[in-house]
Amino acid sequence: MPPLRLDRRQAAARAAAFLVLLAVAGWPWPAVRRGFATAYCATVGAALPLVGFRGGTARARLMAEPPTDVRRPGDNVTSDAAVELSIDASPRRARLGVNLRRDAYLPLLLLVGAVAVAPLRRRDRAICLLWGVPIVLAASLAALATTVAWVFAGGLGPPEAMKSHALDLIARLLLAPPANRFIAPLVLAALLIFWRLGRRTAAQSAAPSLAELPE
Prior knowledge:
By secondary structure, this protein is mainly α. The chain has one domain. The protein has helices spanning 2-25, 30-42, 100-117, 122-153, 165-175, 180-206, and strands at residues 58-64, 81-87, 93-98. Helix 1 packs antiparallel against helix 3 (100-117) and helix 4 (122-153) runs antiparallel to helix 6. The radius of gyration is 22 Å and the shape is elongated.
């Protein structure tokens, strides 16, 4: 019974540390939002112009902008970056506000926080992060590209102009619900943690005990 109470205390302490980390690092500090958006646009976001939309006739470019606390006209989220949309042979440049804190920073924080408080050795934590961080960043870029494709599929017009019903369904089921952005990194973190714990348990079981060693 005492070991059970100890495990519960340890689990409670780890959960409390995770919540404290989210409360402190997840707060929308303007300097943090601006710094993350700038770094993201210069690294991960730099790959967005390489993606061709509408058969290669349309392009998108991600740019960091001053964080906002209210929605700009035409945007459905507060933003700390913007996507500039352009179509070949057209001087029109549409802009779409993007909230990188919600779409990339917080999912990344959830993954890092879960791995940081998990009962893992340093090497296992490093392995989890080496796998998890690129996956979360790649998923955020894929979600952004899908959103851009959804906008272009509507001809830069209202949602009623949507021409691809399959893309519309994907965007509404996977991207529209905000909770999906937070559930996915937690599930990924859990899979990575259990993977490393399972490897450690298997290694310990395979190691010969002292009693089995030859004298």
